[in-house]
């Protein structure tokens, strides 16, 4: 059987795939169907934070599957409540809603923003998002994603989004009017090229929100759950978001998304206003609860930060290109005459899985359980590929 031909025949052509098919994983290593080993610095695009075949995840899945996998939100789901409690107690938010992906979490956040102001009789619905940002592929999330290539062909988009320049407070101010309801941003733009927000910019955004009653929505889909060395990336900057969205690492590979919000905002989701059949089911929340407990330990988070610094330092010293990011969310900007896709392809041939972001950025979002020897190994493989 030629799986690549079969795949091209039976799957919709919306992804451009590399000709590799993985069969199993162990720790930070993947093995393809020919038995070849790969060191994984991509983690299913910042998802598999505990790597592969981690007993905490596999045992929780097996145990929970033998009890209940799914029951619907018509009933109280204990692990969902326990997960919500953990997330809100570790953040500035008070309540949680669960769904199944990052785009869904952002859809819910956008609806919540609109409803909050409608409930107060205010005609405020515009959300300022940022060029280079990424919030997902569903229609409202896509409308929030200010990248023309992603939006092209799907017009008309959802109304009510305006786009500001990232790290530019004046541009934000220019976008504000009496209809402005929220500012929505990533602390590090992931898909956009691993572009970190500047401290001053974030502090100014927080002040603008406070002064004008604008809600601050932080999309932590990629940065959240320990990726940057804090449970949430906003915590590096002392921000106080009204809404936080999560997905990716939260389930360690099991699909789950979440919206956290402060009480006065969260309460706008009264019964019947929003929902999800699968959202927050037993299986996904049982796993996510264990993951949050595992990640949310000071020594573990400090270690993630330290390993991120080590990775950045090694890349800078070895290649001399611009390296950016916080914790284990790292980008290396390649020179214009070097194709990032080629580097990713050649890395695969050499047994290294890395990602792409933005125009020409090589992206590293490895499992958080990676160690320094793995990082050395990745850099050694890259040296062969790049030099
Ligand atoms: C910051 C951010 N928001 C939202 C999304 C969309 O998440 P999903 O693909 O789970 O819908 C992504 C995915 O890459 C993301 O990085």
Description:
By secondary structure, the protein is α/β, with parallel strands linked by helices. 39% of the residues lie in helices and 18% in strands. It has helices spanning 3-10, 43-46, 55-67, 78-89, 102-119, 139-144, 148-151, 169-175, 199-212, 263-266, 282-295, 298-319, 340-349, 372-386; strands spanning 22-26, 29-32, 37-40, 95-99, 126-130, 161-164, 180-185, 188-189, 195-196, 215-219, 243-246, 257-261, 323-326, 329-333, 352-353, 355-357, 361-364. The strands form four sheets. It has a seven-stranded mixed β-sheet, sandwiched between helices. A four-stranded mixed β-sheet has the order 1-2-3-15. Strand 8 and strand 9 (195-196) form a beta hairpin. Helix 4 packs parallel to helix 11 and helix 12 (298-319) runs parallel beside helix 14. The radius of gyration is 21 Å and the shape is globular. The two termini are 36 Å apart. Pyridoxal-5'-phosphate binds at residues 101-103, 106, 134-136, 186, 190-191, 219, 221-222, 247.
